[in-house]
Prior knowledge:
The protein is mostly helical. It has eight helices and no strands.
Amino acid sequence: xxxxxxxxxxxxxTAVKKEMQVLQQLGEKLVKLSNNELAKxxxxxxxxxxxxxxxxxxxxxxxxxxxxxxxxxLMRGIDLTEIEAGLAKREEGQREQAQQFHRLELLRDELxxxxxxAIEKALNVYPHGDRQRLRQLVMQIDKDAQAKKPPAAKRKLxxxxxxxxAAKPAD
Length: 171
């Protein structure tokens, strides 16, 4: 008696190729991470860690392609739940940062357009902010706009809002 799986129960060649492509793409994501980002992802397989390290050093496109195929082959035999969870957590963090950046841009634009009356809104969001500094920056934005100068004050306001966000006490 042999251990072969009947042909009707085996996955098709196309299905196997698609699975390999998915694993190679996952490996490519891991290769593109910085050292710090990669260290945050739990990888238990030493061979995979070594293969990722080797792939990061390669400069030849063809060599990298073959190494990614090898990484995909290695990943076929290991549990990927922790790796996928680590990548998902990283991507979620990036999305949250982008949303925070967008909220800061909107607040800055509202302050620049509405002027002094929008300072209360900014202070509701960041109660530890300096009202006088916000007033000065908003007034400088108006002066720069009237003098048709570059928006240096707008950039300073954005930097100040970023500082306020970084120093915001935990809710």
